[in-house]
């Protein structure tokens, strides 16, 4: 690997945010790096905002159809795998709150190639997911205002999240905290109401208890193999936990914030998903719950609200899914722009992408990610189902690969013997191995699920092409001095 000289010795290159960039407004003030403005509550909510998406509110019909009531076990296992990933990231990030998060850590503890690959793959994930969520936002808006074209809704909501991300990171954190708080409160209300309905009942409706979990074919009516297959669907409900690592570079107090965020995010997500799906299956026959789709009227939330007699249940749920989609889109645009900033700072993307504003916001990274997002939204809306389907298959493949690399990086991190992390993963390397086994189990569903076969068919060639580009171009551009500088800056914040 060629290691170019330090930025100060190369005045002819574009000045990235990791050096002392020329201000974008032409003033003489210098701006360096990203701003550290996020509190621990904001960090946890940003990860929640991405992971607590529309799937929870609209139901998990496909997974329920596969496994029946036993899908509760699938969600519990998925929560365990997600916990191994989040906690592993948290321990590493508490020691190295570095820009680029897990990708920069992979570059150090595995090799520069894996840092390059994981960051570019994750950028693809953020673009695909955000584009999809923007289309969802527009569709939910049309529920109330059917006269508004979907494309107009996409552009409107894109402008909203771009505007939020162009503000200071502190303002972004405040908005995301508010959006995620609405979702959390709604879920808590749903759980409380659901528990009352399940175990106490109403004057006109006796409590069903747990009887529906074993009715109509038993707890696992399809057998136990589908419980495993459903894991390949359920696991992606937890997509977004990676943001814990990315936000570390902008935390006010990384040591405390990361420790708190990692623990609370895992516990909340596990509790919310398992409790909500359990309540739904206790109140609604699983065949009926399995028929829920993207239509708000069929949402389990609407079913429960209607049963309690809350008027306008569909409108309340539509508002929740709109907020959920907007929050997820907002968080993923943030993540994508920070990944591009990190890649550019290390010489793996055009240097101009690393420029920041006076508020230390990577404006070029946001612009580049936004172009990709609008393109993805256009594919989703245009009806080019084949192209969009392949793109989302690549997202699935990329998420699995990024998660696996996080766990492998953690194993190398632990074996290096480095100390100083503010909290430690219970079980250490053994916990990471459990997570890897779980990811391999998900990958193994490629033998029975066509969608996973498509993911492999699309993902493997993309990785091979990315590897070729790295060998021919990227490895000659890696700036090891900038990577070392990023770790030094992170060290100074501990």
TrEMBL record:
Q: Which InterPro entries match?
A: AA-permease/SLC12A_dom
Q: Which segments show compositional bias classed as Low complexity?
A: 14-23
Annotated region (Disordered), positions in chain: 1-33
The residues that cross the membrane are 64-87, 120-144, 150-172, 184-202, 222-245, 266-288, 308-329, 361-381, 387-411, 423-448, 454-473
Limits of the Amino acid permease/ SLC12A domain:
43-480
Instruction: Write down the Gene3D superfamilies for this protein, in alphabetical order.
Output: Amino acid/polyamine transporter I (1.20.1740.10)
**GO CC, alphabetical:** membrane
The identity of this protein, by name, is Gamma-aminobutyrate permease
Q: Which organism is it from?
A: Brachybacterium muris UCD-AY4
């Amino acid at each position: 690997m060629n290691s170019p000289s330090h930025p100060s010795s190369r005045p002819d290159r574009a000045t990235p945010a990791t050096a002392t960039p020329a201000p974008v407004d032409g003033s003489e003030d210098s701006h360096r790096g990203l701003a550290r403005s996020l509190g621990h509550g904001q960090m946890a909510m940003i990860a929640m905002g991405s992971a607590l998406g529309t799937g929870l509110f609209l139901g998990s019909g496909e997974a329920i159809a596969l496994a029946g009531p036993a899908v509760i076990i699938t969600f519990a296992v998925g929560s365990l795998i997600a916990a191994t990933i989040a906690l592993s990231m948290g321990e590493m990030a508490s020691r190295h709150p570095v820009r680029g998060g897990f990708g920069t850590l992979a570059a150090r503890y595995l090799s520069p190639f894996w840092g390059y690959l994981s960051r570019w793959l994750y950028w693809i994930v953020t673009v695909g997911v955000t584009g999809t969520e923007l289309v969802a936002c527009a569709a939910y808006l049309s529920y109330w205002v059917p006269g508004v074209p979907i494309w107009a809704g996409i552009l409107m909501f894109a402008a909203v999240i771009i505007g939020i991300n162009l503000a200071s990171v502190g303002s972004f954190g405040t908005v995301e905290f508010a959006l995620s708080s609405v979702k959390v409160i709604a879920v808590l209300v749903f759980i409380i109401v659901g528990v009352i309905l399940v175990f106490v009942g109403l004057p006109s409706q006796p409590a069903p208890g747990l009887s529906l979990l074993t009715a109509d074919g038993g707890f696992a009516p399809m057998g136990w193999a589908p419980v495993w297959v459903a894991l390949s669907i359920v696991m992606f409900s937890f997509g977004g936990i990676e943001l814990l690592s990315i936000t570390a570079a902008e935390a006010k107090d990384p040591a405390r914030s990361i420790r708190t965020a990692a623990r609370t995010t895992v516990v909340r997500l596990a509790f919310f998903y398992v409790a909500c799906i359990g309540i739904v299956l206790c109140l609604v026959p699983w065949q009926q719950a399995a028929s829920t789709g993207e239509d708000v009227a069929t949402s389990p939330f609407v079913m429960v609200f209607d049963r309690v007699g809350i008027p306008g249940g569909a409108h309340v749920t539509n508002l929740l899914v709109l907020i959920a989609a907007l929050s997820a889109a907002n968080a993923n645009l943030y993540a994508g722009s920070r990944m591009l900033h990190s890649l550019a700072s290390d010489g793996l993307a055009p240097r101009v992408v690393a420029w920041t504003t006076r508020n230390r916001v990577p404006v070029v990274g946001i612009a580049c990610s936004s172009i990709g997002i609008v393109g993805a939204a256009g594919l989703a809306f245009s009806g080019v189902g084949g192209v969009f389907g392949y793109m989302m298959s690549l997202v699935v493949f990329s998420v699995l690969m990024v998660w696996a690399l996080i766990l492998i990086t953690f194993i190398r991190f632990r074996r290096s013997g480095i100390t100083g992390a503010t909290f430690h993963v219970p079980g250490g390397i053994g916990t990471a191995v459990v997570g890897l086994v779980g990811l391999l189990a998900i990958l193994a569903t490629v033998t029975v699920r066509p969608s996973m076969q498509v993911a492999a068919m699309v993902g493997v060639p993309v990785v091979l092409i990315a590897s070729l580009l790295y060998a021919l171009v990227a490895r000659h551009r890696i700036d090891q001095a900038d990577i070392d500088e990023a770790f030094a800056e992170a060290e100074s914040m501990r």
